[in-house]
Each structure stands twice: as structure tokens, then as C-alpha cells.
Amino acid sequence: MSNSDFNLLKLLKTPIKRRHFLSGLGFTAGLAVAGQLPEKAVASWKNFGRSKGRRFNRYRGENPFTLGVASGEPTHRSIVLWTRLAPEPLADDGQGGMPLERFRVRWEIWKGDAKKPNRRIKAGRVIATPKMAHALHITVKGLEPNTYYWYKFKVGGYESPLGRTRTAPAPGDKVPVKFAYSSCSHYEQGFFNSYKHIAEEADNLYFFAHLGDYIYEYAPAPEEDIGKSVVRVHNDSPGGFGSQRKGEIVTLADYRNRIARYRTDADLQEAHRLLPFITIWDDHEIDNNWTALTPEGTTGPVTYSPSDHTNPDDPNFLLKFANRRDNGFKAYYEMMPLADFSRPTRNNELGVREVKLFHRLRYGQTADFYILDGRQYRTNQACETIEGFPGQELCAERNNESNTFLGTEQLEWLLDNLKQSQDDGITWKVLVQEVVFAQYNYKGFFSLSQEKPENYDPTQIEGETFNLDQWDGYPVERQKILDYIDDNSIDNVIVISGDWHAFWANDIKKDFNNSDSKTLATEFASSSISAGCTWAEQLAENQSANPHVKYLTGFQRGYVTMELQQDGDAAIRFRSPDTVMEQNSHIRSIAKFKVANGSPGVVVEDVQDLPSTEQFSELVFGR
User: Fold this and answer.
1) For residues 24 and 102, is the Cβ–Cβ distance under 8 A?
2) Is the pLDDT of residue 593 over 50?
3) Any domain includes 465
4) In terms of domains, do 31 and 104 share one?
5) Percent of the chain with pLDDT over 70
6) Are residues 481 and 493 in the same domain?
7) How many domains would you assign to the chain?
8) How many Cβ atoms are within 10 Å of 158's Cβ, its own excluded?
9) 23 phi and psi, to 5 degrees?
10) For residue 377, which of 353, 351, 401, 410 has the smallest C-alpha distance?
């Protein structure tokens, strides 16, 4: 181990002091940004780090509200308001064009209706610091339940856009709760037309839930692909991670700027402006298929500690990923309207950041929403997850009882709270999580590298091939949840999912291999905002081998709306823009479903004709 490696490991284990130079951006991020700043700016930063008291400067720059405003984490008494000062949101140093100084920002919030504010009720001042890239998270408390509020920020003579948000119903309220959700918003692979239509529906929604892959970490696509499979290009990264992924985002500045690139999109900004967001990450916020402290491309069980990070090809492989994860975590918190309990903290034993995302939101007597984190505490995927995509051959390690998807603490928390919701008489229990929960067997025709056999009939083929990055890779823990639901007679459980760039409506069975098995819950997975589904044909051809899957298509992009009645049924619509390759496309409902109160399972109410397989290339790639 070199001296530099030893010093970095030592720094991993050392508690960070408040006024240490590196705390300006935190750990390796400080190193990354300092290396890009002029000498005078670095000196200024050091002086700022040593300053005493609550000094701040008067802002004299250009309009700093280029990234808009946002709100999130709605309860019946509080809301989180967000903005970030960034006159040059894609500045190379990740500071958004802001000086390395503190600035005092004024915020104001009004009570109103869905159309306009009418009475200012609270105001205050908060300090924006370079340590947080001048991002602000303000938790406003003492609000009224089920009420629209309007808010804005002011600094240096500039005002932010006027944002609108909405609190949850009070405990015990018996009101319908309607919301929308989706995932997988790939900037390069399509325009964000779904966000535009979500904003247009905002008057009838309580919130929008983004179920992961808010950004993609990939290197920019070649410009010659624009107009083919790409409509616009990611901002570049001077970093890169590993010989196979040169150009992917890695540093704190990279992650800040990639999220900022997405947030410059007008349709995404408008959705954030009009609706509170509930956000969870999946993999692409950090690295494709990452789990806990393990990056993409690492198979089987992995034990991590700062002093044990060996890899045959790169002895610092896991250490580098821990640094990268730290950067992604910090940028994600900074840029999302997350509550204070999600603020990154340091695990001194491992020397890495942790971010708590899992929690419960109660919407009156109608619904409890369980916001889950399926990445940070996960056992690494048991079997090879690259060859044979989208399905993989199985291995014995998949059924190891110690494998976990949620981690011990989160799993126990979920089960206890499901029981509590049932005891409290809450009608609907909604699991808000990233990846498809139901089993899906790809049978024989599972690989993108294979051609479909003639007269293909998956029901006549023996064997199992699953996507092991989904719950199919963790069948033991999935069964624990299903058994608990069954043993405790927990009714009206709905799972909402993203990740797989396809619309799904699934019966959740006690035993997925037995079509006559009891249905315990219902799942509705959203397609993507814009990311394409190159495996749509594999999905379509194998649905007959999965009879619990009542609806499935990977040919459309879009989002889901769900309305939950306290004393009635759940109504679900799959909404899809005609295209993502052009802006301002028409939106339509392609399927409607319901779940009867007290009777789990998908009830299909209306389904539009699906496109043929021959139309696939045009729909996904615009060609």
C-alpha cells in the first residue's frame, strides 16, 4: 500500500472536524473541487473555513434561481421547502457559479388554494453555505392538514419562482388520496414529456413519487447519436471510474452537475414547482446495480472494511467505490427536497456516509405509505448479473437465508409498521420502492443476444431464469414479507415499483409457482419517464409463463396515477405520452385497473390495443 493509500484510509476513519478545510465539501469531494479551483479561491475557502460567528455576504451576482424550487416530505403538519443558489448551475467546480461565501436567503410561505396564494403565514431567513453547494432545506412546521401552500425565496434582489405544495390529510380523515409515480428519467434517451403532463394534473394530486433513477450516471453519448437513439447529451465528466467506464460521473462536482443538468429541464422544474415530491434512489443515482458498498461488476458475497478492499485487478477497487458513493449520497441529499433525518451522517466504523431514506407517511385514515430503500443495506447480487440479460441463470447462493434486500433493521421496521397500520384501521398500505416485487420467469428466451426460436412457447419450457437485481434475486426475504402479511391478516397491501421501464399489473402470490395460490397483495409498476426498454420483446413473449402478471408492456413510457378511497376501491391508470423523441406530445391512458377494498388482486377495467413488436424500434428509439 502506498503512502497516499494509507493516508486516504486514515482519513476515512478520522472524524471530520467542523472547520477543517476538507469539510467545505466533505471528504474526497473537497480534494476533487480543490484541485479544480484557482489558488486565490482555495485560499478564500480556507479563510472562510476559519471564520467565526455567523458572518454572511450580500449577494451581487446573476439570477441564482436557475434550478427552480421544490418541496417534499409532506406530513399533515409540515413540509420541506428546497432551492439552490446556482447562477451557473453547470460550473466545473460543482459550486453552481457561486462564490465560496455564505449568503442569507429569505423564504416566505402563504396559505391559499390550488390556484393562488392569499395570506402569508410564515417567513424567515436561512444561511446558504458552500459546504452544501448553497442548497437549502427548510422544514416548515405548524401547518394545517390537507391545505395548499405557496412559497418562494429571495436573495440579492432576486425572487425564485413561486412554488406550490400540499400537506397530507390529518390522522383520522377519511378522504380520497390521489397521487402519481414513475421512475427512470434518462436525459439522453427522451424528453421529459411525462413530467409536463404530471404538472398539468397537479391540481388533482397530493404528491408525485419518484421511484429511483432520477439521473443516469453514464458518460455522455456520442453527439452523432443525436436524432437516432439520443435526443440530447449528458454533461461531460472529467473523471471516470474504472477502465471500462471512463467518463461516468465520480466526483462530488460530477454528481452535483449531473443532477443540475436534469433540473434545468423546464418540464421537470414545473412538476417540482407544483407538487411535493417523495423521492427514493435506485442504482443509477450512484452506479448501475450497486448494492451497499459494492459497485457494478462484483459478483457474490463481499465483505467491506477500509482495511480490506482487495480486488484482483485493482487493490483499491472497493475503496474507490466507497468514495464515489459518498459523493453521490451528498449530492443527492443536497439536490432533493429531503427531510433533515435524511441528512448524510458518518459511519465511523466503516468510514463512509449513510443517508436514511426509509420512513412512513400517513395520509389520514386512507393510506400509509412506506418509503423503502432497496440499495443501501442490500446483500450483493448472488449470481452473475451481466451475461444473459435481462434474465440470469440461477445459483445456490440466491437462496442463502442470510441474503437481505432491505437489511435487518429496515425489514423489522416494515413488518412492525404494517401490523401497526392494520391495528390502526388504515385502509391501504402502500410499499413505495424501486424494483419489481413479483416473480418473473424469462424461461428459455431470456437473453438479448438470442434470437427467438420458431414456434416459441414458454409454457412448455422447463427451467428458471430471473433478473436477480430485482426481488427475484432475494426470494427468501420476499417470502418473509409475504408470510408475515398472510399470518397477520394484513389486507389491502399495494406495492408500487419502477426500474424496469415497463408497465406491470401483478397479483402478488403466496407461491408464485402455483397459480392457484392465495393472492396476498397487488403490484403496479410504472414504466419510465424516458429510458428505453430494449428487452420489451422478452417481456412480451414470456408473459404467458407468468399467469400472475395480468398486464405488461415495455413498449410505452409514462407514469401511473392511483386514487385510494378510504371506504372504497383503488383506481389505477397507466398514462403514456405518444413519444419521448419529440417534445409536447399528447398523453393518453393506455390501461385502467382497480383493486377492490378487502380483495387483493388486479381487476382489469380497460386496456387499449398495444403496438406490435414491429413498431418497437420506432417507439423506443424513434426510428
Assistant:
1) no
2) yes
3) yes
4) no
5) 84
6) yes
7) 3
8) 15
9) -70, -10
10) 410
Are residues 15 and 104 located together in one domain of the fold?
A: no
Query: Which domain does 47 fall in, by range?
Result: 1-54
| Length of the chain, in residues | 623
Task: Summarize the confidence of residues 92-106 as an average pLDDT.
Answer: 96
CA-atom Rg of the chain in angstroms: 24
Residue 267 has φ and ψ, to the nearest 5°, of -70, -40
Element of type H or E holding 524 = strand 519-525
| Domain co-membership, 12 together with 108 | no
339 within domain boundaries:
no
Region 543-557: mean pLDDT is: 96
> Which residue, among 484, 498, 341, has the nearest Cα to 417 in the 3D structure?
484
Closest CA to 118 of 108, 128, 127, 110: 110
Confidence of residue 384 (pLDDT cuts 50, 70, 90): low
Residue bearing the bigger pLDDT, 430 or 346: 430
In a domain, 455, yes or no: yes
- For residue 45, the model assigns a pLDDT of 32
Task: Check whether 304 has a pLDDT greater than 60.
Answer: no
**Cβ distance 290 to 297 under 8 Å?**
no
Q: What confidence tens digit (pLDDT) does each residue in 403-448 have?
A: 999 999 999 999 999 999 999 999 999 999 999 999 999 988 778 8
| Position 614 in a domain | yes
Judge if 20 and 131 occupy the same domain.
Answer: no
If asked whether residues 50 and 63 sit together in one domain, one would say: no
Torsion of CA 379, 383, 384, 387, to 10 degrees: -130
Please report, in angstroms and rounded to a whole number, the separation of the first and last CA atoms in the chain: 51
